[in-house]
Design a protein that fits this description.
This protein has helices at 35-45, 79-82, 125-135, 199-209, 221-233, 290-294; strands at residues 19-32, 55-59, 63-76, 87-104, 107-122, 139-141, 143-145, 155-162, 173-182, 193-195, 218-219, 236-245, 253-274, 278-282, 299-301, 304-314, 318-322. The protein is an alpha+beta fold. The longest helix has 13 residues, at 221-233.
């Protein structure tokens, strides 16, 4: 049965993918969480494939990347929607890394590594609506403080609407969510940065500290071949859950699927490995329990930091499994 045409209507603002982003300024901070806690979250959001018992997503590393991004140019590549204009966007994303594994002779073997993004906050409802409806990204609204000068990365913060602790009398309000600050309060704490010359060098540097821990699975020749292809293509493969609540029984999903989409960074304008010391501070919120889900504390030491400006294309998504 062919799919019906999507009914566009005013105010919906879910533009068709694929998309392009230009001059995307990204600040990335790597911290360490709990593989056990992350796996519990991944099991709920990805490992619901009851009729595919030989496929499983297993957390590949205790490393987590917190990224603040600012893009002055976000546009659909579909001609009809391209003519309707473009967006600007500021985001906070949390990236963890999962291995798509298959069961072979009673053991799990990794096939490839994918990015999984359990928390995303954005500063505009335009991309919130599109991101949720097009791809299924779990986006929330946020209010941001980010550096005005990319060469002075000392403080950034995102706040959002929510509740610190659930109770019958709790009232939602604006709460500070994530703060990242450079350690030290005098003017002589900067340790400088290392300039990277191209996107390939950046990918290689990032892969060094995102190497799978190989806990819970094995890697073989197919995995190594896939990793080599990803490095060559400079490809960012993402996996996520897309779902819609059933109108008759809100405790059920009328649609639930695992979706993949690829991003392709290009046109690197600058990339720096930051050598300063940073701390990530998390204000616990029951509405966005990122600390509980990722096994983080209120204060977390950054082990790697980097900044970069680049363009990126984001492909159409593809449905790899549908539960409903």
């Amino acid at each position: 049965m062919p799919l019906p045409n999507y009914a566009d209507y005013p105010g919906n603002l879910a533009y068709e993918q694929p998309f392009i982003m230009k001059q995307l300024q990204l600040y990335g901070f790597v911290i360490e969480g709990s593989v056990e806690d992350m796996q519990k979250m991944v099991d709920v959001r990805l490992n619901f494939m009851s009729d595919r018992p030989n496929t499983k997503y297993i957390v590949a590393s205790n490393k987590i990347v917190f990224a603040f991004t600012q893009s002055p140019f976000l546009q659909s590549l579909v001609p009809k929607f391209k003519e309707m204009g473009r967006f600007t966007e500021i985001t906070f994303c949390s990236y963890i890394f999962v291995a798509e594994c298959t069961l072979q002779d009673g053991e799990w073997w990794a096939q490839r590594i994918l990015f999984f993004i359990p928390y995303i906050l954005v500063n505009t409802p335009l991309t919130l609506i599109g991101g949720r409806e097009d791809y299924g990204f779990p986006k929330s609204m946020g209010d941001f403080v980010i550096p005005k000068d990319p060469g002075n990365v000392d403080f950034m913060q995102v706040s959002t609407m929510g509740m610190q602790h659930f109770s019958e009398d709790a009232v939602a309000g604006i709460q500070t969510f994530i703060t990242i600050s450079r350690d030290g309060d005098d003017g002589n704490t900067e340790k400088g940065h290392t300039i990277l010359s191209d996107m390939g060098e950046l990918f290689s540097a990032l892969r060094k500290f995102l190497t799978p821990s190989e806990e819970g699975f094995h890697v073989g020749l197919k995995f190594m071949a896939n990793e080599a292809e990803i490095l060559w293509k400079k490809q960012m493969s993402m996996v996520f859950m897309r779902q819609f609540r059933d109108i008759g029984d809100p405790s059920k999903a009328c649609y639930q699927a695992i979706i993949e989409s690829d991003g392709y960074p290009s046109n690197l304008q600058h990339a720096h490995i930051l050598h300063d010391d940073y701390t990530v501070t998390i204000n616990h919120m029951d509405t966005l329990p990122i600390d509980t889900d990722l096994g983080l504390s209120a204060s977390n030491k950054v082990i790697h930091a980097f900044s970069m400006m680049f363009d990126a294309n984001f492909d159409d998504g593809k449905e790899v499994y549908r539960a409903v």
